[in-house]
C-alpha cells in the first residue's frame, strides 16, 4: 500500500529520485518476502557493529548461520543458529536478529 502511494507520488512529480527510493523499498520488501527457513545468512556490517552480536563476531566474522524460524510479528523476527557462536553467554549458538542485521551468505567466485 505504501509502495503504491509512493509510486503514484513519483509519477505525478516525475522525479527520478523517487523511482530510486521506490526501487530500494521494493528490494527490501522482496527480500523480506523471499527469506525462508533454511536460508544461509551472515551478519551485515550493521549486525557486526552491534554489541549484542559480539558473541558471534568474537568467534569469527566469516561464519554462516541458518534461519531456523521466522516470527513475522516481532522486530527481531529471524531465529538463526550460528555455526561457531558457542560460548558461555550463548551455549546453543542461537540468536534472534532483525532484517537489518543479516544478509544472504555469499560464497565468492571460487
The parts where pLDDT drops under 50 for at least 5 residues are 15-22
The class by helix and strand makeup works out as alpha+beta
**Percent helix:** 25-40%
Q: Widest sheet: strand order?
A: 4-3-2-1-5
Strand content is 15-25%
Order of helices and strands: HHEHHEEEE
**What characteristic shape results from the CA principal axes?**
globular
Mean pLDDT: 75
- How would a crystallographer describe the biggest sheet? 5 strands, antiparallel
Task: Tell me the distance between the termini.
Answer: 41 Å
The gyration radius over C-alpha positions equals 17 Å
Written description of the protein model:
By secondary structure, the chain is an alpha+beta fold. The protein folds into two domains: 2-33; 36-104. It is 36% helix and 20% strand. The protein has helices at 2-13, 16-34, 45-49, 54-57; strands at residues 40-43, 65-70, 78-82, 94-97, 102-104. Helix 1 packs antiparallel against helix 2 (16-34). The longest helix is centred in the N-terminal third of the chain and has 19 residues, at 16-34.
What's this, in brief?
Helix content is about 35%, strand content about 20%. The protein has about 110 residues and is an alpha+beta fold. A five-stranded antiparallel β-sheet has the order 4-3-2-1-5.
Q: Keywords for this structure?
A:
110 residues, alpha+beta, 36% helix, 20% strand, globular
